[in-house]
Amino acid sequence: MRKIYTTLVSLLVVLSSVTAQEVKNIIFLIGDGMGIASVSMMQLEGNYEPTIFDQAENIALQKTYSADNRVTDSAASGTALATGHKTNNTYLGVLADGTPVSSLMDVAKGRGMTTGVIATTYLQHATPAAFYAHIASRHDYLNISKQLAESSIDVAIGGGMSFFKELYGDNAVTTLQEHNFDVITSMDALKQHREGGRIMALLADKEIGANSGSYLAEATRDALRLLENEEGFVLMVEGSLIDGMGHANDAKAQQLEMQGFMGAIEVAVAYAKSNPGTLVVVTGDHETGGLSIVSCDSDFCLSEQGVEYRWTTKGHSGVMLPIYLYGTGAEKINGIMENAELGQKLKELIAR
Hints:
The chain is an alpha/beta fold. The chain contains 13 helices and 13 strands. The protein has a single domain (30-288, 302-319, 334-350), classed as Alkaline Phosphatase, subunit A (3-Layer(aba) Sandwich), CATH 3.40.720.10. Strands 1, 2, 3, 4, 5, 6, 7, 8, 11, 12 and 13 form an eleven-stranded mixed beta sheet that branches. Strands 9-10 form a two-stranded antiparallel sheet.
């Protein structure tokens, strides 16, 4: 009897451990254009005090090339991360032959989970659109807007009202309401919103804009509050304009965008710590600008040569990107992988 009892106790411990490791919520934060040099820059600028990146419980790497280009754009990389499939540059949510593929959001909705997207640019931009749209051109903003209106996304926060106005004219708000969205046009109104239902928070005609301070952290906090439910949720948060400052080769401006993005990561990690079952995944879609951090002097006998930020391109680069993992399931994503492998793994974690 003692042996049977011991076996049953061991089995219960194993079952309890499996249950404890189940991923219920995913918060997926994507720094558009953020590479390892951008992270290193923030460590340096903070005098190497621990950053939120240093708090990661696990780290992996992803390769970013697209199906038709060794250097990806945001549409192809966003599609890989959102759907688990590589595609051509400019394509969103479809394979290279045009076949639509399901996204992480589609899998979540199939399980009764809620879904959300947040951006500092317009919601029809490539990275957020990869999670709900299926179209061969990332620049077809009106059709992407139509697909967003008709999507199953529960909470959308960002810019992009001008595209809905162009598509639906004076009936833009009414049309979104007919698709069961409560339309919100200010952060104050978003913070005060307490009712259930779907929310389209269109806070700007185009972009929220650069140097938006605590916007991304506040939007993330509000979205988490609104998405919470018994079945779980998936939230994608994009630090959109890290990319723009890389294209501009502006290190100071990129530091401000990184600070805003890091604030959102801190909110997500704090939520994961107090809500077991939450996995936080932080990565980029590609690196922008070819940023490097170099010594100002080649004489390494000096105690301090100073450093400077140098850019090698106004476009994207093809370097691998770090993946930072926190919370439940952080140990399940490891090694060097394709960006599409990361997307597929996240789908598998909630397809239970």
